[in-house]
Amino acid sequence: MSADWRSDVLKFWFALGYARWWKRDDALDHQIKQLFLKLWAEKRELPAEAFLADPLTALAAVILFDQFPRNMFRDHADQFATDHLALAIAKEAIARGFDEQLQTDERAFLYTPFQHSENIDDQNRSVLLFNELGDSRYLPFAEKHRDVIQRFGRFPHRNAILGRAPRPAEIAAGDVYPW
User: Fold this and answer.
1) How many degrees, rounded to 5, is the angle at CA 122 between CA 120 and CA 126?
2) What's the CA gap between 151 and 147, in Å, rounded?
3) Does residue 152 contact residue 170 with C-beta atoms inside 8 Å?
4) Where are the beta strands (DSSP E) in the chain?
5) Do 72 and 113 touch, CB atoms closer than 8 A?
6) Left if phi > 0, otherwise alpha if psi is -120 to 50, otherwise beta: which for 177?
7) What percent of the chain is helix, strand and coil (3-state, nearest 5)?
8) What's this model's pTM, rounded to 2 decimal places?
9) Is 122 left (phi over 0), alpha (psi -120 to 50) or beta?
10) What's the pLDDT tens digit per position in 152-171?
11) Closest by alpha carbon to 155, among 111, 116, 108?
12) I need a surface site. Which of 9, 61, 71, 165 has the fewest CB within 10 A?
């Protein structure tokens, strides 16, 4: 790790590319944990405002708090531990117009915490943001996530990890993993 944590996060993540972002890869999960767990643990103690100096700081923080935990803690509740922080950063970054200064894939990751939220208002905003992004790769996923929240009020595929009992409608629906 260099002295510039933001650069380390962004270079690492965007060097992976689209195909590797969405594919389960235990070796990659391990690598992210080895490289970024300590940074995640240190930075998560800071308030959202600490990451709003500029667009790239906000983006790096969102990736650190939203994407990396999904790799570092796959199949464990800790993967959602900093979702609230990522969402707070994303909301304020967008309010400041930071997203308008980012490239398409960068903007997509700034918007992703809305897609990971179990709040329907966040989901509706996700669809709006991804629609405005204008990249056909991302919008269908935002819509699928929103549809699951609209139907169940939460992501049923998280139930076991979070120790939640499935509701009858979720059991009847079977696997409703959004993608």
Assistant:
1) 110
2) 6
3) yes
4) none
5) no
6) beta
7) 75, 0, 25
8) 0.95
9) alpha
10) 999 999 999 999 999 999 98
11) 116
12) 165
Which residues have C-beta within 8 Å of that of residue 34, sequence separation ≥ 6? Answer: none
HEC profile for 71-116? HHCCCCHHHHCCHHHHHHHHHHHHHCCHHHHCCHHHHHHHHHHHHH
Take residue 85 and report the two structure tokens written for it. Answer: 């922080």
Residues in CB range of 161: below 8 A, 6 or more apart: 75, 76, 77, 79
CA pair distance 33, 40, nearest whole angstrom: 9
Chain mean position to CA 43: 16
| pLDDT tens figures, 33-90 | 999 999 999 999 999 999 999 999 999 999 999 999 999 999 999 999 999 999 999 9
